[in-house]
Amino acid sequence: MKKPVIFFDWDGTLCDSMALCIHENRMALERLGLPAVPEATLRRCNGPTFEEAAPMLGVPAERLTEYCRVRLECALSLVPQVNRLFPGAKELLTALAPHAEMCIVSNGTAPYLTLCKDVFGLHGVFLRTVASHPERTKTQNLALLLAELQPERAVMVGDRLGDIRAGRDNGLKTIAACFGYGNDAEYAQADMRAATMQELQQMLLDFCRN
Question: Could you read off the pLDDT of 14-23 as tens digits, one per residue?
Answer without folding.
Answer: 999 999 999 9
